[in-house]
Amino acid sequence: MRMLRRANKELRTLIFVAWLLGYVAFLLSIRRMWTGKHIRSPLVRSLFMSMVTENDTGTADQEVGMCCPDLLGESVRPLFVQSHLDSDTKAFLKRSQEKSSWLFTQLYHSLVSTVLGPMVSRTSINGFLGRGSMFVFSADQFQRLLRIVPDWTAERLLDLGAGDGGVTEVMGVHFQQVYATEVSPPMKWHLQRRNFT
User: What is the pLDDT of residues 63-79, one digit of tens each?
Assistant: First the structure.
């Protein structure tokens, strides 16, 4: 009986060591996928990139893509407005980077997205979770884009597919009446909370 127990224990140890070696061999065989570009899950990719860039200085040193207007057609060139990395944009990027490092929040969002994904649109899931807020331009960038002064106003604004109203709010300060449309019920709630018609 004692010999049987000892043989059983040795067999379990042998199976565990074989499994461990097999697992390590598997990880080594797919190590080329550890670059991050092959990771499909946004959560896992975010966690991986967070680990890889843990010692980076952050968004303040990020370069902004510059466009060469000389490559644009003659009819488009005078309409082009080069954007820049202003304080509002930096603040948005900093908040986004901070939120992406909230491990338990990201796990919760991933779980809810997985459960609701087959039944609800991604926009509605984002609205339910209070995420997915768009940043298209800052107030200063909007004014530069339209070539308007800060106190310029017009009568009405209609934002089609307004999402949670973040972009609508940036534009809305220049209009007397603001209307927004949205299909997603959770995003409609966000728009109502911001008192958009």
Answer: 566 778 888 888 888 88
Full domain range(s) for residue 24: 1-35
Q: What does the pLDDT average to over 123-140?
A: 85
Q: Is the pTM of this model over 0.70?
A: no
What average pLDDT score do residues 2-21 get?
83
Cα–Cα distance for residue pair 66/85, rounded to 1 Å? 11
Please give, one letter per residue, the 3-state secondary structure of the chain: CHHHHHHHHHHHHHHHHHHHHHHHHHHHHCHHHHHCCCCCCHHHHHHHHHHHCCCCCCHHHCCCCCCCHHHCCCCCHHHCCCCCCCHHHHHHHHHHHHHHCCHHHHHHHHHHHHHHCCCCCHHHHHHHHCCCCCCCCCHHHHHHHHCCCCCCCEEEEEEECCCCCHHHHHHHCCEEEEEEECCCHHHHHHHHHCCCC
The residue-averaged pLDDT of 88-103 equals: 85
Total tally of structural domains belonging to the chain: 1
Position 127 scores a pLDDT of 81
* Residue closest to 142 by CA, chosen among 109, 97, 103, 174: 174
Instruction: Please count the other Cβ atoms lying within 10 Å of the Cβ belonging to residue 83.
Output: 16
